[in-house]
Design goal:
The protein is an all-alpha fold and 40 residues long. The chain has a domain at 16-40. It has helices spanning 5-13, 17-38. The longest helix has 22 residues, at 17-38. The termini are far apart.
């Protein structure tokens, strides 16, 4: 078990590109929606 732990830790530390892009697109959609609602 202790043999596998370092590998899992390394994987967890690695940031997936699709997670970042998903959160970025979500943030952009939120900003666009807010701007549209305010009417700027």
């Amino acid at each position: 078990m202790s043999d596998r732990q370092p590998r899992v830790g390394r994987q967890h530390h690695h940031v997936e590109w699709w997670v970042v892009s998903a959160w970025l697109s979500l943030a952009v959609l939120l900003v666009v929606g807010l701007v549209g609602a305010v009417g700027i």
